[in-house]
Amino acid sequence: MRNSLKPIIAPGFLGISIPIALGLFLWIVGHFFYLYSFPDEIPWLISLFPISTLVGELICFSVTLIIGFILTHLIEQFSIIRTRTLLPAFFFVFLMSTNPALHLAQSGLIGALILLLAVGQFLPMYQDKKAVQCAFNVMFILSVGSFIVVELALFIPVFLIGFSIYQSFSFRTISASLIGLIAPIFVIFSGFYLWSNVQILIQYFLKGWHFQFFFPLEIRTFIYFSLLVIIFFISTLNFMVDSHQEKIRTRRTLQFFIFLFFVSAILLLFKGNNWTQIAPMASIFLVSLISHFFSLEAGRFSLIVFWILILSSLVYFIHLLFFTP
Predict the structure, then answer these.
(1) Residue 79: domain span
(2) pTM of model > 0.85
(3) What is the pLDDT of residues 256-277, one digit of tens each?
(4) Which has the closest alpha carbon to 139: 156, 151, 162?
(5) Which pLDDT belongs to residue 1?
(6) C-alpha distances in angstroms, 274 versus 53, 116, 192, 226?
(7) Of 307, 300, 290, nearest to 85 (Cα)?
(8) 221 lies in a domain?
(9) Is residue 1 part of a domain?
(10) Which ranges of the chain have pLDDT less than 50?
(11) Which of 316, 278, 293, 301 is nearest to 232 (CA)?
(12) What pLDDT does residue 235 have?
């Protein structure tokens, strides 16, 4: 059966331009009509992404586009989806655009970009127990990134488990990982000790490790997030049923992405009002799985689920802007 989403999966130039223009439009509308509540952000990021200014939001939108297209490139390069598709970029930009609370999620976007770079270094490691350069790069990126977005430190043990999933766990890769992890810590702490105050760095880390349970949620947010989780489970179930059609490497990659999504989702639940710092990271793995589903599943059911996702996201966006007391 022909996939009825084909014009969206593999669009031409006009098909690419329309989603970008739609995302930009939603971003601009959100700037004028949404009342932002700003969680604790990184001071130097605030100066880089000016808060509550249209320029700052356009910079965040540009970073969102970059993340979306890097994700699409990685999925195509490593054949995670068996057909060429732009759905990962489309879904990432669309979901970020229809949630105005994420339009100025500076640390969340930077964290998602750093995490995606680590994923890009991880993917070539499949069944390579001598991939010391990639192992070093993964941990080096996460270690440096943890000094920018503290929550990235929680992904360090997750990627070590990923080495096992990818059958690249060995003395060499673990040794390279430890060197990549420790080297930035040693250099940065030494620098603060010699030219500044180590207490500043320690206080910054302690502040980042503050946890607060996410609930209670507004009913509209609870319904929308529940819908996203349901669609993720539909996509995961479809992958599990049809996993025999995938290469072993693809199966292990998607299993690792599912694991990363659950870790991100659990972390999001315990960030309270600062959930926007984690949502872009979780979105990377959410859109990877749902893009796999919509790109390969042809039929009326996938089309219905697709439009439910699109329309509910737009309704949620409009409700936040115009029906918030």
Answers:
(1) 6-322
(2) yes
(3) 999 999 999 988 888 777 788 8
(4) 156
(5) 46
(6) 20, 20, 27, 19
(7) 290
(8) yes
(9) no
(10) 1, 40, 44
(11) 293
(12) 95
Tokens in use for 66? Answer: 């970059």
Give just the sign of the alpha carbon dihedral 124, 129, 134, 138: positive
Amino acid at 129: K
Task: Judge whether 29 lies within some domain.
Answer: yes
Average pLDDT for the chain: 85
Kindly report the number of other CB atoms within 10 A of residue 51's CB atom: 14
Q: Domain count for the chain, please give it.
A: 1
Per DSSP, the residues of 214-260 read -PSPPHHHHHHHHHHHHHHHHHHHHHHHTGGGS-HHHHHHHHHHHHH
Residue 60 identity:
C
Q: What percent of the chain has pLDDT over 90?
A: 50
Residue 318 domain flag:
yes
One-letter amino acid at 95 equals L
Are the beta carbons of 7 and 15 closer than 8 angstroms? yes
